[in-house]
Amino acid sequence: MIAPELLEKYGALKKSFDKNEIIFEEGNLPTHYYQIISGQVKMSNYNDDGREFIQGIFYKEQSFGEPPLFLNQKYPANAIAVDDSEVLLLPKNNFLKLLEENPAISLKIIENLAQRLYYKSVMAAEMSTQEPEHRVLKLIDHGIAYFNFKKDANGYHINFTRQQIGDLTGLRVETVIRTIKALEKKGLLKIINRKVYR
């Protein structure tokens, strides 16, 4: 989102995280702006039963964890590397200075945060009122638009695991598997070599 060269000019450092390594923990105060160079990062927390709820999954060139940074509030979720990942970390004060001195980037950040807020509003309504098929399709269609899923001859490859779809929609994995099969029968999804396509 922000050119890596510009982030480095303001003092950003690259840091590598192993798969499943925690980048920051729920309850900590934010100290940095984070932008992914490679890999994937999820933000999630757990309910009292130990069930994970994924707040979001972030990919190459996306940033994560900004709202608490702007509000100086504690993180509401953990950030965890889904794969081996490389991330740029820019100290908070340097990040704020970068935004002050580059208004066009401030607008990009606002647009990005608005997109996430819109997604959360849509998914909150879906999770409280809609059937599993509708929830899964809504998530997938949003993913195509927002996560830049790759398109090939089979359609858009949906780069979420069944577990991630469940965690993002509030459904159990078994329900997700049944729902995807039902959507395939209706011709709304394709399953090719266990991969899901839209």
Automatic annotation (TrEMBL):
Assigned keywords, A-Z: DNA-binding, Kinase, Transcription, Transcription regulation, Transferase
One Gene Ontology CC term in the entry: cytosol
PROSITE patterns reported for this sequence: CNMP_BINDING_3, HTH_CRP_2
Cyclic nucleotide-binding domain residues: 15-116
GO MF terms, alphabetically ordered: DNA binding; DNA-binding transcription factor activity; kinase activity
InterPro entries: cNMP-bd_dom, cNMP-bd_dom_sf, Env_Response_Regulators, HTH_CRP, RmlC-like_jellyroll, WH_DNA-bd_sf
Record's keyword annotation contains DNA-binding: yes
Xref: Pfam families: cNMP_binding, HTH_Crp_2
Limits of the HTH crp-type domain: 130-198
UniProt protein name: cAMP-binding domain of CRP or a regulatory subunit of cAMP-dependent protein kinases
